[in-house]
Design goal:
By secondary structure, this protein is an alpha+beta fold. The chain contains two helices and five strands.
Length: 111
């Protein structure tokens, strides 16, 4: 349980940090979504750039079976690298945006 609490805090802190960066264009709202009960965490951009609708997921992370599943990572640094810097072992990070058959080549957990 301690590990799960630690991972939740890591994920929430990372997403909260990224939520401070508002796009430099348009009228864009940065939304943070934390569902601790189901362990789903997201960072979204929603709004308008001129006449064009902007809606996109910047980060989507789930925690399943005490592993961190990175579903989508729209950052330059890479959330997996930030998690490694915090001490999360590669065996607890799944790059879920890669097809299951490719995950064994990533150096991270497969499931």
């Amino acid at each position: 349980m301690e590990k799960l609490t630690k991972y939740r805090n890591y994920v929430k802190n990372i997403i909260t940090e990224y939520s401070q960066y508002k796009p430099s264009y348009g009228d864009i709202e940065v939304q943070v979504v934390f569902d601790e009960q189901r362990d789903h965490y997201q960072l979204l951009n929603v709004g308008w750039h001129g006449n064009r609708r902007v809606r996109g997921c910047v980060l989507q992370i789930d925690i399943k079976n005490e592993k961190i599943w990175i579903q989508h990572d729209g950052t330059e640094i890479g959330i997996a690298n930030e998690l490694l810097d915090l001490g999360v072992p590669k065996s607890d990070i799944i790059l879920a945006f890669h097809a299951p058959y490719k995950r064994k080549y990533t150096g991270f957990a497969v499931s």
